[in-house]
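== Sequence entry ==
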Amino acid sequence: MNDDPTDVPQARRRRALLLGAVGAAAVVSIRPALAATTASISTCEIAVPDPGRAGSFIAADGSTVPRGTQGAFAPPSRPLKGEEVKAALAGGQLPGTSHDQSRAYTNYIRRLQSGTSGFTCFASLQMPRG
């Protein structure tokens, strides 16, 4: 073992370079993951109502009610895209819906629970992006 005091700064430099390389590798691997997450948000879909409640209508408060319930809305003809839902949750309106329909559907989406179809898409819309 060499007790030369000049070896200490070199060891520190080597360690700093190693840590820098590890940090750079982490950045390289995280950025594509964030890009993939952003892309999946725009393409994910939320069925309203979820397939387990197919045929139900959506009440103004977002609850599912039997077909034909007074004041409730028929489900949309197709699953809603993540970017449509994100815009509606930010104060916009879902395409092809009235103001009241859009509000009922977004209320339904806000009530989604873990394990329900569409929950993962909704949860990913809620995550802040950096």
About this structure: Residues 24-36 have pLDDT under 50 and may be disordered. Residues 1-43 form one domain.
